[in-house]
Design goal:
The protein is an all-alpha fold. Helix content is about 80%, strand content about 0%. The protein is globular, with a radius of gyration of 19 Å.
Length: about 290
């Protein structure tokens, strides 16, 4: 059951990126990032009202730092808007997952976010190298090639994604899954408003005005993002890290490949080969944890 939920979350993220790319093309990165956050916040607020849950009341007594996961999440969304349209959806998702894998290894090695400290060994390093090789092969056949900025921000989006997930998970443990998701979009929206305000002299007002003429379906990326955050939070406590990583990787990368093939006419054997090689790297990295029973 939870494998299906995690796989669904991964596919939702792939579709979300494609929709957000359409929105970004219409109104620019800053305005799109704000709209994505506001749409997600509206969806989670509606869910909280239906469940009669008050996020402010639920978070009383919680350390202030745990409420700021959305600040990090803002950068995840913004980095994605910088990359989408410049390289393929498959490449963005794969590079993000490379960033997630590397960040997870660092967190385990240093024992960050209250995680158990684990020694970084040869299998983990070999896993990261094999995953990177697979993604390099995948990039070689993708739209946009290996343009530095979209590649770099895609990797960074994986770094911020893991940090957001850790903070949101800890907040959800102290409150609820819905409250954790709500704060992820509430504080992210606040940062997005401030960022757009700073860009107003550079034409941000015109971009935001143009966003009002965008077809309604292009606003759905934020709603899908909120759904994906919630579904991932459901699975984090009920699946091993190994299973979660594999489900997310398989759903996102191969779902992204399907989107690229259907909507952009981009598909090649390199995509499958690169995805399979990167998946093999993740499997290799999971072996030490499986031997420990993790």
């Amino acid at each position: 059951m939870h494998y299906a939920v995690a796989g669904s979350a991964a596919l939702i993220i792939a579709v979300m990126l494609a929709i957000n790319g359409e929105l970004t093309a219409e109104c620019g990165e800053q305005a799109a990032t704000l709209i994505i956050h506001l749409a997600g916040l509206a969806a989670v607020t509606l869910a909280a009202l239906c469940k009669r849950e008050n996020p402010f009341k639920a978070a009383r007594g919680v350390p202030f730092g745990l409420l700021l996961g959305g600040v990090i999440n803002y950068f995840t969304t913004y980095f994605n808007t910088l990359a989408v349209g410049r390289i393929s959806v498959t490449a963005i998702l794969a590079l993000s997952l490379l960033g997630q894998a590397a960040t997870s290894l660092v967190i385990d090695c240093l024992g960050l976010f209250g995680m158990e400290k684990r020694r970084l060994g040869a299998p983990e390093l070999a896993s990261l190298a094999l995953t990177a090789l697979g993604i390099a092969l995948l990039l070689s056949g993708s739209r946009g090639g290996a343009a530095f900025i979209p590649v770099a921000v895609s990797v960074l989006s994986g770094v911020t994604c893991v940090c957001t997930r850790q903070v949101t998970a800890r907040l959800s443990e102290r409150t609820s899954l819905l409250t954790g998701t709500w704060y992820s979009y509430f504080t992210g929206s606040a940062v997005a408003v401030a960022a757009l305000g700073l860009s107003l002299p550079a034409g941000g007002a015109a971009l935001l005005g143009g966003a009002l003429a965008v077809p309604a379906w292009k606003y759905l990326g934020g709603v899908l993002g909120a759904a994906a955050v919630y579904l991932q939070s459901v699975c984090v406590k009920r699946m091993s890290s190994f299973a979660m990583t594999l489900c997310m990787f398989t759903g996102q990368v191969f779902g992204g490949a399907a989107i690229d093939a259907v909507f952009y006419g981009e598909f090649s054997a390199r995509t499958l080969a690169g995805g399979a090689l990167a998946l093999g790297g993740l499997l290799l990295g999971s072996l030490p944890a499986r031997r420990r029973g993790g």
